[in-house]
Amino acid sequence: MMKRESVPPSRHQVDARMWGKEHGLPRSYPVMCHLLDTAAVFGALWDVLLSDQLREKTAQELGLSVTEARKVLAFWAGLHDLGKITPPFQAQVPEAFAAVRSEPAYAFAPGAEQARAFRHEMATHWVLALLFDEAGYPGTSRLMRAAVSHQIAQLLGGHHGCFGAVLQAKEVAQASAYRPGLGGDGWAIQRGAHFAELRRVTGGWAVPERGLPAELAVIVTGLVVVADWLASQTEAIVALLPPAGWRGTSEEIDEHWERTQKAAPGLVAGARLGRARFTAERFEDMFPFPPNTLQGDLVAHLPTMVKRKGAGLLLVTAPTGDGKTEAALFAASVLGHAAGARGLFFALPTMATADAMYPRVSAFAEHALSGERALTLLHSMAWLSPAYSPAEFPDALSEGAPAEGVVSADTSTATEAGAWLRGPKRGLLAPLGAGTIDQALSAVLPLTHNALRLFGLSDKVFVVDEAHAYGPWMHQLLTRLLEWLGAFGAPVVLLSATLSGCTASSLVDAYRRGAGSLQPSALQPCYPGWVFTDAATGEVSTPREVGTGRGRTLDVRLRPVVWDTAAPAGSPGQEGGRRQALREALEPVAAEGGTALVCCTTVAEAQQTFRDLRRAFPHLAAREGGLRLLHSRHPANARQRITAECERAYGKPRTPEDVARPRPASILVATQVVEQSLDFDFDLIVSDLAPLAQLLQRAGRGRRHLRGATGRPAWALPEDAPRLVVLEPAGDSGATLVPRTWGSVYDAGLLQRTAHLLRTRASTGIAVPEDVQELVDAVYAEDFVDHLEGSAQRELQRMDAERQADEAAQTHLADIVAICAPADVAGDLSKLSRREAGVTEELLTTRLGADSGRVLCLYEQPDHTLTLDRSGMLPVPTGGRHGLSHAALAQVMAYVAPVPGRWLRGAEGHPVPKGWDKHPVLSDLVLLRMQPVSDDRESGVPAWSCRHGSRTIRISEVGLESDA
Length: 964
Prior knowledge:
The protein is an alpha/beta fold. The protein is built from 33 helices and 26 strands.
C-alpha cells in the first residue's frame, strides 16, 4: 500500500472527561494527556536507547525514513492505552464515570461496565485492529496475522506483558458485538477522536509498507512498555497535570504536547537507561596487567577478524585459571564497539558466582567504557548482596514514607513497573549487568514481560560463563535464547573449561540459525582456543588453538573405597573405607601445613565429613580457620560470611608476603558450590567421584595461582603437578557402586565412564590442557561401551539408555514450554505468551527437578519470645500498613536458608507475623520455631531444633539438617 501523507482531521473533539490515571494523584489525569506523555517518552527513548543501526533497520523494515519511523512509532506508543476509553475501565472511578454514563452518546449494553475481565490492554488490541485498517495500514481479511494493522494492534495490546490471540476478521469488523465492554458508537467515536488527535500532534501520518519481524516487534514492545512506565510515574504526572477545567481542545493538546516533550528526556535520563560506549581499544587500557597467552591471541587476531566480518559469537575454551574472564571482557569490548551495543550482561551459573563477578565487571566498566554505566546485580537475592550500598535501596517501604518513582497504576502493574525501573532492580534494562543465567533464560519462557527481557538483551554483549555447566533443560533454553540473540545480531561470548564438541556445535549453530544460517557447522573446538562466527554470514572461522603459560599434569589418584560416611564422627575408620582414605590423604596438610579442598556430593555428607575431620584433626579444629565448611544450607548471612572468609584464606595472592611461606594448615569441606567461577587456590584437591567435567573444574582449584617454592609446602611441589585424589565408592567386586545417599545428583552411567577413564590415566596423569578436550569428548562417546565386556558392558548400556531417555525428556519438555524461535513467530506475537496446558509459573521459573523450599529459623528465648538470632538480640519484626521497612525486610532475608522441599511437605510452619503478607519475597517462607538442645551431634556445640511434621530439623554451626 502506498504511504499516505495525511488523513482528514477528526470531526469530533476529544472528551477530556475520559480519564487515564488516577491513583495517587490530586485529580484524574485525562487519558489524552497520558497518550501524549507516553509518545513523548518513546521518542526520547528512541533517540537515547537505540543505536543508529537499529533505528535504520527498523525504518527499513517498515518502508519508512528514519524520521518518519520515529514519528509513527511514537504515535503507536501513545495509542497503547486507547482501550481505556471503554465502560469497564472508566467505571473504575465512579465519580468520573458518573459524568458520562447518563449521556445517550455513551450508551452501552446492560452490565457492560462490569466486564472487568475485558482489560483495557485487550480493548486496545481489539479497537486498533480496525482503526489502523481504516487509516490505510496494509492488511487482508483472509489472514489477519499477515495484516500490518492487526500486528501493530496485537503488539500494543501486549504492553502489560502478554499478547492476545490473533483476532478473526469478523471480530474486528463487529467488535462491540463480540465484546460489549467496548461500548456503543459514542465510545468508538471518542477512541477515533483520540486516535486522530494523537496522530496529528505526533506527525505519525506515514503508513508502513510492511510489518515488523519478530525480533524488531519485541524491541518496539519493550520501548513501549518502558515509555508507559516512565510516563506513569506519579511525580512526572503531577508536574504535567493540566489545570482544572482542561477541555482537550486542539490548542490545549498542542500546549501539553510541547510541555511533555520537554520533560521526556529528563525522565529517561533519570532512569539511567542510556547507552554505555565501548571506547577502550587496548588490553592494557582495560586491565592493570599485560595479556597472557590466551588473551594475547585474542588481542592479536579478533579485532581484525571483527573489523572484516562484523560482530557475532565468540566461543572460548580454556582451563580454569587461564584468564577467561578478562578474555571475555576484552572480546566484549571489541564486539560491542563493532555492533554499536549499548552495554553487556555477564551471565553466571549461581548467585555466589554472580556476586563475585559484579565488582570485576564494575572495575572493567570504569576503565573500558564511557557513557551511561549503570550496573546491576541480577538474581533473586541481589538486593541483599553486600555489593550494593544501602543508598541504592531507598527505604521506601517504611510506613508513611513516600516512595520515589512510584507508578500511578493498579497494584500489580505498579509493583511490576517499580521492580524494573527503580534502583538495582532495573535488571536487564540497565546498560550493564552481572547475574544468574536464569534471569536471561526467563526471556524465552512464556512469562509475563518476557518480551521486555528480550528487549533488555537485544542490544547488549551477552557473556555466558561456564557454558558447560547446564543440564539438558537449561541447555535447550540457552540454545533458544541464542537463536533470538542471533536474530537481534547481538554479540555473544561463550566461556567454558570443559565443553564437548557436540555441545559446542549446538550452541554455535543456534546463534547461526537465528542470524539466518541454517546449514549446520559441524564445529570441532580446540582446547585451549577460540572460534568466531559472524552474525552477517554465519561463517565459522577456523578454530584457533592457543598455547598456555601454565601447562601442568594432574596427578590423579583414584581410591576405590567402601562408603562409610554414616559412621559416627571420630569412630575408628573402616579398613578400605572413605573416612580412612580421606584422613590419609589429608595427613600432609595436618602435619606440614598447606591447604586442601574436600568436595562432597551432598550437604549431609559434607556436614558429617566436617564432623569426622574435626575429631580426626583436633588441633586444626581448635585453631581459627583450620577447618571450614561451605555449602548452600546455611542462612544467607552465614554463607556470605563463610564465603568471604574463604576468599581471604584461599584467594589469589596479592602481596609478596602472601607467598613468602606456605599457608597455615587449613581444610575446606564443601559441596559443588566451589566448582564454578570462585577464584580459590588449594595445595590439594580431594573429591568424591563426580562426572569428568566436574572433576576437572574442581582440579582447576588445585595450585591455581603461582605461589612458587616458598609459597607451598614441600609435599605440594612441584607446583605444575597438582594432586587430585578421587574417592570412588566401590562394591565388593571393586566396581563403582553409587551410594543410595547420592540419589539422582549425578548420572550413574557418567560416573562409571569417568571412573574407567581415570583408571586409564593412573600412571600418566592428565595433561592440562592437552588431554582435556579428548577426555571430555571420550566420556560421552557413543562407542565407549565397545571397550567393555560382559556384564560391565550390559550394565553401562542400561545406564546410558536411562540417561539418554531422561535427557531427551528434559530437552523435549524445554522445547515444549519455551517460546518459539523468532523465525516461527510468523506475525503472531501471541506465540510468545502461549503456554501449553498444565504448564505452571512454578515449572517455568524453577530448574527442572529442583525440589527446594526456604525456611526462617525463629529462636525461642527463655521468656518464650522469638528472635531472628540465637543470642536473642534481634526480635522478629512486624510490619505496619505498608508491611516491613526495607531494613527490616533485609534483616529477615539475611537469616533465610534453602532446604529440600521434601522437608517441608505435610506440615505447617509457625504463623507469619503481622505485615509479612505484604511482601511477595516472603510468600513461600516456612517459619520454624526452634528450641535449644543440649549440643550438636558429637561436638558439644550448642544447637537448636524443632519438630516439623514427622521430621526433626536442626540448626547448628554446620547448617541445617533433618533427621528423617
